[in-house]
Amino acid sequence: MLTLEGGRNLPPGTLVRLEALADTTPRGVAPDVPPPPAPIATLLREWPALQDALAALQANAPAQAAQVLTESVARPGPQLAGALMFFIAAARTGDVRGWFGDAASRALEQIRVGALGSLGEDMATMQRASDTSESGWRGFMIPLFDGEQLSQLRFLVHQDGGNEDDDEAEDKDRDTRFMVDLSLSRLGDFRLDGMVHENAVELLIRTKRPLPDDMRSDIFGIFERTLARTGVTGQLAFRSEPVFPPLPVKELTGYDDAPSSDLTI
Q1: What angle do CA 16, 121, 42 make, to 5 degrees?
Q2: What span, in angstroms and rounded, lies between the C-alpha atoms of 221 and 156?
Q3: Residues near 238 by Cβ (< 8 Å), separated by ≥ 6?
Q4: Is 173 in contact with 200 (CB distance < 8 Å)?
């Protein structure tokens, strides 16, 4: 017997992918040993090793747990962009201790042997996903704390043609596609779908339900002010749809490491 949450209106023939998760420990419960390394398919939705590490710190070193949540993990606010870039840089180099912080790393090593290593193994998986795949897609899975719970922000980038390390002038005019996908406590699933070319940007905001008029107006104002400051031209549109187009996560380097099977209903 299989129950699929939110799948009551799926038409016959819909393809459902079943993926083995890395951890079955209830959220917030710290196991005696760190969870095994998580595949990309899991890290796109959650980071079990981080959840368990924070649970262990909160039970034994609450000050260090609070420090990680305030200084290391990205959270909504004025410092969000900086925190996102800080994590992306750490993931690209595999520097889990530098991101987690020395004090919290030392406390975690004393509380749970191997926990910091588990974080490092997962970050190595994230590092692999951030490398340009054969299809040109790169993916970043970024932990986000909204003040109540952890979630994963999915940031995917694709640049047309050329080599990503090529700094030649003619290589700087390539089209760049990007997607920022996350779930918000009040708005639900939320996605920024954009395209950048030279000095122009096109941005589509996808939501499951239409955004209130005042929120659309506020977002449009932010968009226009940002364009004015940067000298870039652009277009912004909103779209509400019950089902978003699938993210190109299967195109990421290392995604095939996740055991899965397909089921047609």
Answers
A1: 15
A2: 25
A3: 204, 205, 207, 210, 211, 216
A4: no
What pLDDT shows up at residue 201?
94
108 CB-near residues (< 8 Å, 6+ apart): 53, 56, 57, 61, 64, 100, 115, 116
Looking at residue 26, what is its pLDDT? Answer: 46
The pTM of the full predicted model, rounded to 2 decimals, is 0.76
Please check whether residue 140 is in contact with residue 126, taking contact to mean a CB–CB distance below 8 angstroms: yes
Measured in whole angstroms, the distance separating CA 232 from the mean position of its chain's CA atoms is 26
Report the residue count for the chain: 265
Q: Output DSSP code: residue 261.
A: E
Q: How confident is the model at residue 263 (pLDDT cuts 50, 70, 90)?
A: low
- Residue 236 pLDDT more than 60? yes
